[in-house]
Amino acid sequence: MRDALPDRRRHPRLIVVGIGNPHRGDDGVGRLVAGLVRGQPGPGTEVIDCAEPTGLLTAWNGVDAAWIIDAAGPPAPLAGPDRAGTVRRLAVVEGGPLHPDSVASTHGLDIAHVIEIGRALGELPTLVVIYTIRAHHLSATTPIHPQVASAAHRVAKAVVAEAAAYPTVLGGLPSDDQVWSRWDGELPADDQHHVRHH
Question: Is residue 21 domain-resident?
Answer without folding.
Answer: yes
